[in-house]
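Researcher: Let's continue the batch. This sequence belongs to ABC transporter permease, and it's 385 residues. Same format as the previous ones, please.
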Amino acid sequence: MADQSPSSGLPKATDTPSWSLQNTADGVCLNVEGAWTVQAGGTTPFPQDKLPVEPGHTLHIDATGLKSWDSAFVAFLWDVKQAASKAQLHFDEQGLPASAQRLLALLPDAPAEPAQPPRNNEGIFARVGDITLNGLTETGTVSELALDTAKGAAQAVRGKSAMRMKDLLLDIWNAGPDALLIVGIVNFLVGAILAFVGLVELRKFAAEIYVTDLVGIACAREISAIMTAIIMAGRTGGAYAARISTMLGNEEIDALQVFGIPISSYILLPSILSLALMMPLLYLYGTIVAIFGGFAVSMSMMDVSPIGYWISTFDGVELKEFIFGFIKSFFFASFIALAACRVGLKAGRSAADVGIAATRAVVIGIVGIIAMDAIFAVIANALGI
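Model: Same format as before. Here are the structure tokens for ABC transporter permease:
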């Protein structure tokens, strides 16, 4: 039979791994020569249809020409062993080095079949019930977490909390002043876009002056609260989930529990409290910046004086709009922080779980904000606000 080399077409070097088949009286002999290492190119698989089908015969291995080998040689021999099994040949490994025989003995005769996904035979009612129970369990867990955090806040007021003041101040800085730039840019652009679109449409009805009411009421009542909450869900909520899941992976949470330190007061309370305190203030800041964005666009497109614009804004936007947005921002912040902390505590302990937890916290935060805003809209409509 012809000699086989992984580097076909190239001049055959002395260390180049090669193999050849030779018919013998009791079967087939596989001759291996050269250096069967990864660096020498010994990773070529053995063709599964190369061996003749001769039931009862033996496949011998002649390794007298083998100079060196590593795991690539063992992988090649495993292919040969599987091909011999298909050809109904007895695989005789006596000609191999003893260490290669021991490694080859650790491998099964054939690769394991891929595991089949488990079949879910549960009916629709069982699935709905399972989802309902999981939802109720999660709601209870989050409520308990919120209650523990509220108790920690009450203890902090009395000076008996395990919360460290420097942790609270650091979280306040990260959730407040450190976010002013991005909150300002986004709200300024949103206010400018709102004014531009409003002017284009209101100009058709000669009602351009009402753009001041449009920008002021929309930003104070809805837009600034939602945009600020979305920014903080992506920025601070994701950071909370990543931080807590990292602490979970490093077993810092386990260490705190072993020492009897309450997680809710030591870790969760500074995070939730800082965001709940800062986001309403960020909402007010964002609303003012958004109105300035609308003012900047209006001055370039409207025939109205700056003083007239601001007088029209103050007359059109009532104080209750700011109060409504301020209250919504507080609830948005509490939800974002609580959900992010809960997602972080539920995360796994690997590095990949940190990213998953951060992504999940952002998604839950944004969806929750939209859902809560819809609930607030219904309540406001019912109360006539």
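Researcher: Any comment?
Model: The longest strand covers residues 58-69.
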